[in-house]
Specification:
639 residues, alpha/beta, 4 domains, five-stranded parallel sheet, elongated, binds adenosine-5'-triphosphate, binds magnesium ion
């Protein structure tokens, strides 16, 4: 075991699977076999769909490393040039999607052919004619060597558009074949491709690969590298889906395909055949428990096998942050995906060890890391959806420096104020840039959750989209710090007098030692009245069960601050003050509170109305009492 503090060794890995394999922990005990991995391994699902950072590439990497189960693995990751080739690929006489499907089918056929040539030698130790033919075909078309996908694609594309060398399959010239029976460029390419595909299928059959041993696994990842909102990009992905489906039926059990797609890309596709892929889809989801497991696995892999959950969460991390168990505090502030969890955890470790040179992470470190993390994630969210929802970043100001609970009505008025400039900036998106449209988008990307019963539901599982009757939304905890929206509702904080003075509990007995006259005095009575008012507001708040818990907590917190002050007033430890002035300030605070609650839109159905009325009533009562000291009737003041 290495020397030095454990915290120095603690590391949760790299935040992308590609680097996590080479410099991180992914293949060193850091991988967690999840449902998506099992589905991919068993071949039950072909489309693995997940948000950015949800672990698509990690599954690719793990499957590539698994070995054994498969006769071979091929990972296709298009780069700029490859994407450009595919996007530009067109064939006269064929609709875009079908043309793109042809080029993907060609890519698959060539990969399968290359696999077969080595596989026949290594695994079957024989070379049937069909395999020899493939080797010749690859050579004649310049496909034997590795080379960059983009360059090879360019070549293949030209071949399909004009003619491939098909002599290896006994077809004298691709062009002959084409001229004989194909009227259009598209049909000509399709005929040539069929010859190649038949050659590949024939070789698999001759070797008896299907069922004889594990299949060849062809994986396509990182399509987002070449993704843009243009129709060509759309066709490129749809073509890929169609090609994979075609190839599955053609090669039977000999080849298995796995396409890893970003959810924002997949969800933006629209094509007639879409319904045929539902059964092939698997969406990657992460629960808090899975993220805890991931954290522990990675802590073990970096800091030593003797690491336990108890040590991690009570010794290295503080046991609680802001009164909440640390792991739950952290994971509630991440979108549920491993990249976010890894980043947040590493940031806590770095804040404690690198910045402050500590050997344990403190609550302050977590809070500091949390602010930084929130900033990152707000920016990352806008980037993640830059193609699908380029306006996203411009919606964030609607939530800045206010409470994180927003009603539809309040959001509506904020949106109305911003709508014109949004429409001017994004004229192509005016149909989405409506209040319901914006709510749908913000919910779908995980920025807003919706209040359902006593829960707040964030997108992620199979939950319903936001329904028209739903009116209360909560900004995800991940983004609150960056937006300056850290309390539920935008309530002015009550600043107790002499907050720096130590509060002496049960200070009644010191009362006579202070400047006040006899006991009980009118002053004493006034403070007691204020306490009663506070308790009655608190009771009303706790009865408002349909009000969001966070909002209730916030009101309770502020009223408790008022109560704290009454203790100071009664103890007489506060520095000099004029009691009646002070009580007027408090009364005025109640008015503000009621007005802010109303402005938050949390009235009527949410039960805030009763709380507002109670606060107003108590303010009136206080004012009447205080008015008495000036000899007025008390009923004229402010009610
Ligand atoms: N099942 C898993 N077990 C352990 N670590 C995982 C798992 N899935 C993902 N990770 C880790 O989470 C991080 C993000 O995963 P990955 O890079 O695979 O995401 P991605 O979905 O490919 O994202 P992008 O869309 O940005 O490419 C990586 O560090 C990866 O190692
Ligand atoms: Mg990836």
């Amino acid at each position: 075991m290495a020397d030095g503090p454990v915290l120095a060794r603690l590391h949760f890995g790299r935040e992308d699977a590609e680097r996590d394999v080479t410099e991180g922990l992914l293949l060193r005990g850091g991988f967690l076999p999840n449902a998506a991995y099992r589905a991919a391994l068993s071949g039950r699902k072909m489309l693995i769909i997940g948000r950015k950072g949800s672990g698509k590439s990690a599954i690719c990497m793990q499957l590539s490393a698994d070995g054994g189960q498969h006769a071979g693995t091929v990972l296709v990751t298009p780069d700029e040039t490859a994407g450009e080739e595919i996007r530009r690929f067109e064939l006269q006489g064929l609709p875009g999607d079908s043309a793109k499907a042809l080029i993907w089918r060609y890519v698959f056929a060539v990969h399968a052919a290359r696999h077969l040539v080595t596989h026949a030698k290594d695994a079957h130790r024989r070379k049937p004619d069909s395999v020899k033919a493939l080797a010749r075909f690859l050579k004649q078309n310049g496909e034997s060597a590795g080379g960059r996908l983009g360059d090879r694609l360019a070549q293949g594309a030209r071949g399909l558009q004009t003619s491939l060398s098909l002599e290896a399959f006994g077809v004298r010239a691709g062009l002959d074949l084409a001229q004989a029976q194909a009227p259009s460029e598209g049909a000509q390419a399709a005929r040539q491709l069929e010859v190649v595909e038949q050659g590949v299928a024939g070789a698999f059959a001759d070797l008896g690969c299907a069922g004889g041993h594990g299949p060849l696994l062809v994986m396509v990842d990182q399509l987002e590298q070449v993704w843009s909102a243009e129709a060509d990009s759309n066709s490129m992905v749809i073509g890929l889906l169609l090609a994979a489906k075609h190839a599955v039926s053609l090669y039977g059990g000999a080849v298995r395909f796995l396409l890893f797609l970003r959810a924002d890309i997949y969800d933006s596709l629209s094509f007639g055949e879409g319904d045929k892929f539902r059964g092939d889809e698997l969406r990657i989801t992460w629960t808090e428990q899975a993220l805890r497991d991931l954290a522990l696995a990675r802590a073990r892999a970096s800091a030593g096998a003797e690491m336990t959950a108890e040590r991690l969460w009570a010794e290295l991390f503080p046991a609680a942050v802001e009164g909440e168990e640390t792991a739950s505090y952290l994971f509630r502030r991440c979108l549920p995906r491993p990249r976010d969890a890894i980043q947040f955890l590493n940031l806590c470790q770095e804040t404690a060890w690198l910045i402050h040179g500590r050997e344990r992470i403190t609550e302050a470190d977590v809070l500091q890391a949390g602010r930084q993390f929130s900033d990152w994630k707000l920016k990352d969210l806008a980037l993640e959806y830059l193609v699908a929802h380029p306006f996203l970043k411009h919606l964030f100001p609607l939530f800045q420096n206010t409470g994180y609970v927003v009603t539809r009505a309040v959001l509506g008025s904020r949106f109305d104020a911003a709508a014109e400039s949004l429409h001017r900036l994004f004229p192509a998106y005016t149909d989405v840039l409506t209040l319901p449209g914006v709510i749908d988008v913000l919910y779908a990307v995980g920025f807003l959750g919706v209040r359902r019963g006593n829960d707040v539901v964030f997108a992620g599982g199979d939950d319903l989209p936001v329904q028209a009757h739903e009116t209360e939304f909560h900004v995800h905890p991940c983004f609150r710090a960056a937006l300056g929206a850290t309390s539920a509702i935008d309530l002015r904080h009550f600043e107790p007098l002499g907050a720096t003075t130590r509060v002496v509990q049960g200070g009644f007995h010191q009362y006579n030692d202070t400047g006040f006259a006899s006991y009980p005095t009118r002053d004493h009575q006034l403070v007691q009245d204020l306490r009663r008012s506070c308790h009655s507001i608190l009771a009303q708040t706790s009865r408002a069960v349909s009000l969001a818990q966070d909002a209730r907590d916030e009101i309770t917190r502020q009223i408790n601050r008022v109560l704290d002050e009454t203790s100071i007033l009664l103890s007489g430890t506060a520095s000099s003050f004029d009691l009646e002035d002070r009580l007027l300030v408090t009364t005025h605070y109640f008015d503000t509170l009621a007005a802010q609650l109303l402005a938050s839109g949390l009235d009527g159905t949410t039960g805030a109305g009763d709380v507002v009325r109670r606060i107003e009533e108590e303010a009136r009562r206080m004012r009447r009492r205080l008015g008495g000291s000036y000899g007025s009737s008390g009923s004229s003041a402010g009610s």
